[in-house]
Design a protein that fits this description.
Helix content is about 60%, strand content about 0%. By secondary structure, it is mostly helical.
Length: about 220
């Protein structure tokens, strides 16, 4: 038997019957649900402290928020949907139009579904992540003399080299590595290896070779 999420009305009934000290089995019988479904609901969403009460007015908003957030992340992992949304945003389509049009363009693909609220949430999340990551880029430019460039919003193809380089760096420094424990010598070794590794995008020349040519050519002082 497939599991179906409890409705707000069912959680309302559970909260009142639980306060009245009905057993999980009796609550399930009255709702037409298996008693393990009731137990699972109260264990997952009930109070974490002894003596607490499973109360609808606190539980329902929390459950709905969690469910919507989970759905949002699941949608964002579906590459065709993400690409579709990005393409339409770059074409200046509003989220409401995108949410409706994707259903018309993919009528038989349930994975190609998204609400305009979720699209707005993705946009807001990206905005908070930016910049957070790059808020000190002006200080970086002034201290190093380098120029910092940003990809256009929702232009993933502009970050191809960046994403590829991140993947190469992960070979030497797995995700979660603390660079406080990485010596300068170890870091330089990885940099030298990568700079002298031929790249397909450079016609199988190495980054160091391309840089050296640029230094002795048009960019030379």
């Amino acid at each position: 038997m497939s599991y179906e999420h409890l409705t707000p009305q069912e959680r309302y009934v559970i909260s009142h019957l639980k306060v009245a000290k009905y057993s999980h089995r009796e609550i399930g019988r009255r709702l037409g649900r298996h008693h393990t479904t009731i137990s699972r609901e109260i264990k997952r969403n009930g109070p974490a402290y002894p003596g607490g009460v499973y109360w609808y007015y606190f539980i329902d908003p929390m459950v709905e928020k969690r469910r919507h957030t989970t759905r949002s992340y699941r949608r964002q992992n579906h590459v065709p949907l993400v690409q579709y949304v990005e393409d339409k945003l770059r074409a200046d389509w509003p989220p409401e139009v995108i949410a409706d049009r994707v259903r018309a363009d993919h009528p038989h693909d349930e994975k190609m579904r998204i609400s305009h609220e979720t699209i707005y949430r993705w946009v807001a999340l990206d905005a908070r992540q930016d910049g957070k990551e790059f808020s000190q880029f002006k200080d970086l430019e002034s201290k190093t003399g380098l120029s910092v460039y940003f990809a256009d919003p929702y232009a993933a193809w502009q970050r191809g080299t960046n994403e590829n380089t991140n993947g190469l760096l992960r070979f030497y420094f797995p995700k979660g590595t603390s660079f406080k424990r990485i010596s300068v010598r170890t870091l330089q070794r990885a940099v030298d290896r990568l700079n002298n590794r031929p790249r397909k995008c450079l016609g199988y020349r190495t980054p160091q070779e391309v840089f050296d040519d640029a230094q002795s050519g048009a960019l030379a002082n």
